[in-house]
Amino acid sequence: SSSVVATSSSSSSSSAAAAEVVDWGAGIRGAWDISESGALSLLTAFLSSSTGLAAYEAARSYADGRSVSHLSPYLHWGQLSVRLMWQRMKIAKAQSLSKTFHRRLVWRDLAYWQLHHWPTMAAQPIRTLYRDVEWSSGPEAAQHLAAWKQGRTGFPLMDAGMRELWSTGWMQQSVRMVAAAFLTEYLHLPWAEGAAWFHDCLVDADLAINSMMWQSAGKSGL
């Protein structure tokens, strides 16, 4: 009888635990067409749409991402070839429409060049004198870091960006810089903590590109 009760109790506990499981990937799956065809459709739409490449130079900094390409995850995971994208950009006359977008792939190569020469740049400053920066530490700093990760800082743009990151795995470039500046300059917390969190959460988490951005945020990059 006792064994039956124990088995029943164990089953109930297992069922309760299963019911509490959170499908954290649901938002990511809902936000992206994770396929080569999805990547090619997105590329074609961006290069040909009046709200895509044609509007990129003027509207690329808006936090709502109204004119960005959303192509970075596909480049990172290989659903989209860099060479194919470059050729399509040439056909679309991307350089004349937006010098900034045209340079994006160049900056990508720059990030890889940096990672080649500074393989520890994901966690260590490229400019070594910045190793001596005294970042905030202790229980309060840990609470601030947790609030930053969870989008609970009380600053609407900051929090919206971090919640979007957790839900969809993506964040618009300018909002990424807002989040980075908030962490390092307002909270005075180590840029490497931000780099690690972004690398865990981003669907386009490229070690070289993410590290280069965070090195810039920490004022320790090139």
Per DSSP, the total helix count is 13
**Which regions have little confidence, pLDDT < 50, spanning 5+ residues?**
1-9
**Element-level helix/strand string:** HHHHHHHHHHHHH
Mean pLDDT: 91
What percent of residues adopt helix (DSSP H or I)?
Answer: 55-70%
Summarize the structure.
With 222 residues, this protein is an all-alpha fold. Helices cover 65% and strands 0% of the residues. Helix 8 packs across helix 13.
Give descriptors for this structure:
single chain, 222 residues, mainly alpha, 13 helices, 0% strand
Q: Could you describe the 3D structure shown?
A:
By secondary structure, the chain is mostly helical. Helices cover 65% and strands 0% of the residues. The protein has 13 helices and no strands. The chain has helices spanning 2-20, 26-31, 36-48, 53-59, 72-77, 82-91, 94-97, 99-117, 139-150, 156-168, 173-186, 191-201, 207-217. Helix 8 (99-117) crosses helix 13, helix 10 crosses helix 11 and helix 12 runs antiparallel to helix 13.
Topology, element by element:
Elements: H1 2-20, H2 26-31, H3 36-48, H4 53-59, H5 72-77, H6 82-91, H7 94-97, H8 99-117, H9 139-150, H10 156-168, H11 173-186, H12 191-201, H13 207-217
